[in-house]
């Protein structure tokens, strides 16, 4: 199987002014594309793995040949993380989750406000490049977690349902070093109906 760069589910300008068109072009067309290209190049030497899904490769990364583990972690993680991230953003975002998803967030974190504060604090606490996530853990409980580089929560048995890219390539053109402004604007463009589906 050859992995493919998915098209954005909206125009490059759709998320402006929160994420600008040039950032979207570079982020999707260059960075994400490079992860896909390098993942395919690494897997090309292992035709025995051709039938495996990306989820499978990441979930069982420790079982892969040792030389393949770093390329799959970095580029397979990069491909999986970005593919989900694009879908989690929308120009038509409701400002907050509703229904069962909201109830689950309230039950787990106390309130949506507290969840936002904890997620934002986790995002600000990531040193260097990485991601902040809302995941379903192995007990199907909601948890905030962070990962370094392009590590995927799938590698540790978690299922990501919300993701924020904290690499500078995601925000530096517009926000420079002001990561907090980027994180705060993220709340205005979250595709909560998709998060509800994933949970
Ligand atoms: Fe990224």
TrEMBL record:
<dbReference type="GO" id="GO:0005737">
    <property type="term" value="C:cytoplasm"/>
</dbReference>
<keyword id="KW-0479">Metal-binding</keyword>
<comment type="similarity">
    <text>Belongs to the iron/manganese superoxide dismutase family.</text>
</comment>
<keyword id="KW-0560">Oxidoreductase</keyword>
<dbReference type="Pfam" id="PF00081">
    <property type="entry name" value="Sod_Fe_N"/>
</dbReference>
<dbReference type="InterPro" id="IPR019831">
    <property type="entry name" value="Mn/Fe_SOD_N"/>
</dbReference>
<dbReference type="Pfam" id="PF02777">
    <property type="entry name" value="Sod_Fe_C"/>
</dbReference>
<dbReference type="InterPro" id="IPR001189">
    <property type="entry name" value="Mn/Fe_SOD"/>
</dbReference>
<feature type="binding site">
    <location>
        <position position="82"/>
    </location>
    <ligand>
        <name>Mn(2+)</name>
    </ligand>
</feature>
<dbReference type="GO" id="GO:0004784">
    <property type="term" value="F:superoxide dismutase activity"/>
</dbReference>
<feature type="binding site">
    <location>
        <position position="27"/>
    </location>
    <ligand>
        <name>Mn(2+)</name>
    </ligand>
</feature>
<protein>
    <recommendedName>
        <fullName>Superoxide dismutase</fullName>
        <ecNumber>1.15.1.1</ecNumber>
    </recommendedName>
</protein>
<dbReference type="InterPro" id="IPR019833">
    <property type="entry name" value="Mn/Fe_SOD_BS"/>
</dbReference>
<dbReference type="InterPro" id="IPR036314">
    <property type="entry name" value="SOD_C_sf"/>
</dbReference>
<dbReference type="InterPro" id="IPR036324">
    <property type="entry name" value="Mn/Fe_SOD_N_sf"/>
</dbReference>
<feature type="domain" description="Manganese/iron superoxide dismutase N-terminal">
    <location>
        <begin position="2"/>
        <end position="89"/>
    </location>
</feature>
<dbReference type="GO" id="GO:0046872">
    <property type="term" value="F:metal ion binding"/>
</dbReference>
<comment type="function">
    <text>Destroys radicals which are normally produced within the cells and which are toxic to biological systems.</text>
</comment>
<feature type="domain" description="Manganese/iron superoxide dismutase C-terminal">
    <location>
        <begin position="97"/>
        <end position="197"/>
    </location>
</feature>
<dbReference type="InterPro" id="IPR019832">
    <property type="entry name" value="Mn/Fe_SOD_C"/>
</dbReference>
<feature type="binding site">
    <location>
        <position position="169"/>
    </location>
    <ligand>
        <name>Mn(2+)</name>
    </ligand>
</feature>
<feature type="binding site">
    <location>
        <position position="165"/>
    </location>
    <ligand>
        <name>Mn(2+)</name>
    </ligand>
</feature>
């Amino acid at each position: 199987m050859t992995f493919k760069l998915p098209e954005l589910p909206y125009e490059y300008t759709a998320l402006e002014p929160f994420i600008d068109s040039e950032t979207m072009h570079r982020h999707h067309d260059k960075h994400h594309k490079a992860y896909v290209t390098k993942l395919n190049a690494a897997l090309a030497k292992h035709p025995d793995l051709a039938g495996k899904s990306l989820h499978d490769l990441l979930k069982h990364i420790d079982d892969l040949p040792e030389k393949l583990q770093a390329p799959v972690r970095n580029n397979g993680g990069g491909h999986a993380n970005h593919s989900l991230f694009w879908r989690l953003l929308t120009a038509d975002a409701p400002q907050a989750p509703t229904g069962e998803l909201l109830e689950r967030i309230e039950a787990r974190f106390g309130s949506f406000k507290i969840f936002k504060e904890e997620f934002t604090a986790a995002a600000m606490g990531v040193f260097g490049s990485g991601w902040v996530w809302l995941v379903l853990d192995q007990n199907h409980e909601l948890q905030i977690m962070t990962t370094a580089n392009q590590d995927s929560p799938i590698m540790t048995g978690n299922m990501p349902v919300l993701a924020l890219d904290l690499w500078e390539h995601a925000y530096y053109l517009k926000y420079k070093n002001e990561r907090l402004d980027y994180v705060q604007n993220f709340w205005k463009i979250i595709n909560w109906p998709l998060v509800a589906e994933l949970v």
